[in-house]
Amino acid sequence: MTHASAYKEPHHVMLFFEEKEILNEQHTCINERINYYENLKNRGKVLLSGNFWNQACNFIIVYVSSDTELEQIIDNDPAVRNNLFELVRAMPF
Questions:
Q1: How far apart are CA 55 and CA 17, in angstroms?
Q2: pTM reported for the whole predicted model
Q3: Which residues contact 21 (CB under 8 A, 6 or more apart)?
Q4: Pick the CATH number of 4-92 from 3.30.70.1060, 3.40.109.10, 3.40.630.30, 3.40.50.10860
Q5: Which InterPro entries match (predicted)?
């Protein structure tokens, strides 16, 4: 896998997340996650997002200018912070 730092210009990164078991009281965090990425989309940072058919996986394509920005996006994801989703792969392109 190519590290994001190999890209000198702003670029896209496809993030793959796996969902862990979510309890009823944790659904608020999922709503926070939806709002978080919607806000990033409104700022031009999210190109596309979706789920894989019949799997506890989803993807988000983000537009970043640096590794630091990518790390901040991932670290500030409410579901990642609360250990409900796990980043399993990041593919820059």
A1: 11
A2: 0.83
A3: none
A4: 3.30.70.1060
A5: Dimeric_a/b-barrel, YCII
pLDDT of 1-31, one tens digit each? 455 555 567 899 999 999 887 676 667 888 8
Query: Could you report the per-residue pLDDT of 63-90, keeping only the tens digit for each?
Result: 999 999 999 999 999 999 999 999 999 9
As given in the structure block, the two tokens for residue 73 are 């996006």
Residue of 3, 39, 5 lying closest to 60 (CA atoms): 39
Degrees (nearest 5) of the Cα angle 8, 57, 65?
Answer: 15
Tokens for 64, please give them: 């970043």
